[in-house]
């Protein structure tokens, strides 16, 4: 499962939601995000921007 230091989700109405230090999974119905705040499932996404600035830690 990919990890992102910064993940920005652009919604169909052009609003943006940003997350930091998350794991995520893209699927055909949207995106599922796991963060310190819990699990998020979004279906109204237009695109995502994921950035990785450091080496991955062993899980």
Which labels suit this protein?
five-stranded antiparallel β-sheet, SH3 type barrels, mainly beta
Q: How would you describe this structure to a colleague?
A:
The chain has 59 residues and is mainly β. It has one domain (3-51): SH3 type barrels (Roll), CATH 2.30.30. It contains no helices and five strands. The chain has strands spanning 3-11, 16-27, 30-35, 38-42, 45-51. Strands 4-3-2-1-5 form a five-stranded antiparallel β-sheet, with no helix packed on it. The chain is globular and about 35 Å long. The mean pLDDT is 91.
Brief digest:
This protein is 0% helix and 66% strand. The protein is mostly beta strands. Strands 4-3-2-1-5 form a 5-stranded antiparallel β-sheet, with no helix packed on it.
């Amino acid at each position: 499962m990919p990890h992102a230091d910064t993940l920005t989700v652009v919604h169909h109405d052009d609003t943006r939601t940003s997350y930091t230090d998350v794991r995520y999974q893209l699927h055909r119905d949207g995106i599922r995000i796991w963060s310190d705040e819990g699990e998020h499932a979004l279906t109204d996404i237009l695109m995502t921007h994921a950035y990785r600035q450091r080496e991955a830690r062993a899980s």
